[in-house]
Amino acid sequence: MNLVRKGKVKEVYEDTEDTLRFVFTDQISVFDKVIPTLIPFKGETLNRTSARWFSIVEEMGLLTHFLEMPSPNEMRVKKVEVITDYSKMDICTKGYLIPMEFICRHYVAGSLLDRIKAGMLPPEDLGYPNGQVPKHGDKLPQPFFEVTTKLEKVDRKLELDEALKISGLTREEFDGVKETVLKIDDRIAKEVKPRGLIHADGKKEFSFDSNRDLMIIDTFGTADEDRFWDAKAYEEGKLVELSKEFVRQHYRRTGYLEKLEAAREAKRPEPDIPGLSDEMRDQVSKVYIDIFERLSGQKFR
Question: Which candidate, 295, 53, 55, places its Cα nearest to that of 192?
């Protein structure tokens, strides 16, 4: 097989003329940085979790690119064209990757909380009454939907006009993506609730197939793309992270994120991200295995 693309956490190979093979590695990335530490079994947990969600959304009548899972850390999918020149996508283009990540947030956390604290995002824009200041972990009055770039070196937020311009989407198609995301998130929340989990937020990616019908692609509903919390702990006023956010918080505590953001703001060379200790590596591996078991209802081994 020919290597088509090597991403932060998975390798993409040409399988046949019309299919690709995803190989999920044990690498982990945060803040667009690959951590120089491998996380045992991480790739397998992501692959198996993704395959399960694809099966569920197909039962919902939605199109996906998923074909089969030939091994625990590999997935065969339908091939779509990746067009890096935004000007070459319009309302007539078919069979291509929509070059954006679609994010839907249901609780106050992560970068959303950072933007609220920094005064960059007024709480009123999130549906809160005038003067109310939301806290970390609060449930949002309504889902907050936003998009970022997908194919650029560092993801950046997009307003609607630019999102439509760079993707070739019509406004009706954009609204259709949003409706699909909300429908999938509603199903995820219902699936994980009996297993004691809260689905706080997540991202999804889409393409158009050869008929320009919307198709969900890549991976979603995993500990990498989505944020899950322990429901019992939440009821007791605690936020127990059961996703990659566990690792992000580690780099917030160590001060690395602050240094990285300062370098990016000043357009200085970015500091290398430090590796994880053996103890932290093993804790992260356990997080990924535990969340796989709770999401799927299956034993990892």
Answer: 295
pLDDT, tens digit, for every residue of 60-111? Answer: 999 999 999 999 999 999 999 999 999 999 999 999 999 999 999 999 998 9
d(CA 225, CA 101): 10
Block residue for tokens 């889409």: 206
Question: Does residue 240 lie within any of the structural domains?
Answer: yes
Q: Compute the distance between CA of residue 225 and CA of residue 50 in angstroms, rounded to an integer.
A: 10
* Domain membership flag for residue 301: no
Residue with tokens 């030939």: 70
| CA dist 169 → 152, 211, 298 (Å) | 18, 14, 38
pTM of the model as a whole:
0.91
Tokens found for residue 283: 């804790």
Buried residues in 133-156 as b, exposed as e (16+ CB within 10 A)? ebeebbebeebbebbbbbeeeebe
Would 132 be classed as within a structural domain?
Answer: yes
Spatial CA neighbour of 275 closest among 290, 258, 254, 245 = 254
Structural domain count, the chain = 1
Q: Which helix (H) or strand (E) holds 180?
A: helix 171-192
Which residue's entry shows tokens 């996508």? 89
Are the C-beta atoms of 210 and 95 separated by less than 8 Å?
Answer: yes
Is 130 a member of any domain? Answer: yes
Distance from C-alpha of 100 to C-alpha of 118, rounded to nearest angstrom: 25
Q: How many CB atoms lie within 10 A of CB 87?
A: 9
Query: Distances from the Cα of 90 to the Cαs of 156, 165, 170, 212, 224, in angstroms?
Result: 21, 8, 9, 11, 31
Q: What angle do CA 190, 192, 198 make, to 5 degrees?
A: 95
User: 206: which strand partners?
Assistant: 216
List pLDDT tens digits, range 134-166: 999 999 999 999 999 999 887 899 999 999 999
- Residue 177 three-state SS: helix
Q: Which domain holds residue 272?
A: 2-296
CATH number of 193's domain: 3.30.470.20
